Structure formats: structure tokens, C-alpha cells
Amino acid sequence: MVKKAAKKASRKVPVSTQPAAASQVRHEEPTRKHTINDIARLANVSKKTVSRVINESPFVREDTRTRIAEIMQRVGYTPDPQARGLAFRRSFLIGLIYDNPNAPYVINIQEGALGALRRQGYELVVHPCDRTNEKFLSEIRELISRQKLDGVIMLPPVSENSALAEMLQKLNCPYVRVLAAPLDEPQNLVLSMDRQSAAEVAEHLWKLGHKRISMIIGPQTYRSSIERLTGFSDALAERGLTMPPEFVVEGLYTFESGAACAELLLSRNPRPTAIFAGNDETAAGVYRTAYLRGLKIPDDLTVVGFDDSPLASRLCPSLTTMRQPIRDMGRLAAERVMAKIAGLEGPPLTATTFFPHLVVRESSGRPKT
Questions:
Q1: Residue 11 banded pLDDT, cuts 50, 70, 90
Q2: Environment class of residue 245 by beta-carbon count within 10 Å: exposed (0-12), middle (13-18) or buried (19+)?
Q3: Which of 59, 197, 205, 259 fits as disulfide partner to 356, beta carbons 3.0 to 4.6 Å?
Q4: Does the pLDDT at position 85 exceed 80?
């Protein structure tokens, strides 16, 4: 009996005589999350007025808007997106649809769009796709239905698909197309004037004295490629210059295709003294091939790109290129699609148009011969 008692006693867990730490016995209640009703009470306004401030309605006095905004910031109030969606019968989601190999272009568009969307409480659903897939349209339809998208922004070359635009109209899904040519009603467009921009490059090379000028275009399925080639060729012709067919090579708007196309062009005899690349990634590929062939830029070869991505100023020598305000294009596309959703946009007479301009850097030089 004594042994059994001893065994039982040995199994007991000793209890500390010291008082437990406050953190072990006291559990602080989490701070209650404020609601829109709390904000209305603190600001002495109606719930509807607070809602208008949250959604940046113009129908609120500025002093009232400021007071409510200060209260929301002080108490750390953030609107519940699900409740907001139910109240307005919206998802507050905008789709960004693209099939584009130019990663810097897509990223800059995203950043510009997000800046505008988040100020209005919207978020961006990024959807890369394959526009050549036979199920392309049905997949976009499913995306809109599944995510309950309030609107869509389309980037080239997806934005050039008229069947997609027609489908969105039938679905009553507001959209904006970023394009290099006016292929839709003005209110649906954010335009980049690629044809006029390419003409500016032609004038630049002509003024430098180049006569053997070549071009690496993008895929001919891209409208931007057609616009740039047309603008460049026409401007050269106006100045008495022509590009032989063998001086025009089709690339893919990628570094690898730029290097491969430059290999073809620089193998010509006589070779070109200037290359206008379809974009900055392509131009970087030209740099590589020129280096491997022992050619110096701009002493032996002038190179011009398009877009003015961060890469352009980082190359050595720095790249002359057409600067597109890509982030501004993304921002304007987002603002326009939100206005369409809210029914605030009037019928514009013209599309929102952006004119790229030439940034001359170290890759431009006069030809030796």
C-alpha cells in the first residue's frame, strides 16, 4: 500500500508557488473593429454620407469629406470589401487581359492601373492568355463570370481582337482597349500614336546622315508592328530614302529575336549603319550581336529602340529610344473603365491619345561611310 501511494505521489506534477505571469492569465480582448455606423456617429452625419466619401462621390462638401476622412484615419477604419460589394452590387474587380512577351510593358501598365484603381477601392485581376487558342473567347467569358469582373482593360495584341470586344459588349462588361490604331469607338480607347512616333525616328536617323537604314519589326500579327513599319517607311520615303526588303526583318519583341535578327542584318554586304529595333528588348539583343561581331555602338552602328523601359538607360552605351508614357496609359485606362462602370463618363469626341517622343542618348551617331 505504501509503495502504491509513493508511485501515485511521484506522478503528480509539481505546482509552482509563484504567481502566474500576467500574460498567462490575462487575455486582452481584441479591439473592436469600427463599422461605417461608428464613423457616421462620430462625424455626426448619415451612413450614406460616409459611403459617398468612401467612394469619392462628388456630392459631398469638402469640409465634410475632410472631417470624415480624418476620423476614419484616426480610428483605423477600412471598408469591408465584401460588404461594399454587396451594397453596390459590384465585385470592385477589374480584369487586365494580355498576351504580350514584353514583360516591362505589362508591368508598367499594371503599376499605372493599380495606382488609379486602389484610390477608388478597386483591385486588379491579372490574366495572361493565349489569343491563338481556340478556346480563347470562352475562357475570357468564364473569367468574367467566375470573378464577377466589373470591367476589363485589354492590352495589345489582345486589344486588337474585334470578336473579344463584341463579346464584352454583349455581356454588358465595360472595357477599354489600349491600341496603336483607332479600331473602336473613342470612349473605349487609349491610343498610342506609333505611326507618328516611328516617323520621328526616321527623321532622327536622316538628320544624322544615315542612308543604309534597317528595321527589326515586331510580329506582323501585332497592329503596333504594322503602324511602326508604315510610319517609318513613309517618313524615309519622304526624305528620299528606302529600305530594301532584306533590311526589314521580323522579330518577336524579345531579346533573343533581336540578337538573331541583328545577325541577319549585320551579315548583309554592305551592312546597315543604323537599326531601328521594334522595342528596347529587341535593341538589347542587337547590342549583343554587335558586340560579338566586334562592332562599336555608335561608332560602327546606331541603334534606336522603342518604349524607353528602364533597360534603355542601363545599357552601355545608353539607348536612344521612343519614350511611351506606359504608366500613364495604364492609369488613364483604369480611370476610363471606372468612369464607364459608374456611368459618369460622357461621350468624348476623341480617344485618350498619347504621343511618344524620342529620347536621344549615346547609341545615336553619324555613319562613318
A1: very low
A2: exposed
A3: 197
A4: no
Amino acid 38: pLDDT: 86
Task: Indicate the pLDDT class of residue 93, thresholds 50, 70 and 90.
Answer: very high
Phi, then psi, of 16 in degrees rounded to 5: -70, 140
Q: Report pLDDT for 294.
A: 97
Contact 315, 361 (CB under 8 A): no
pLDDT at 30: 46
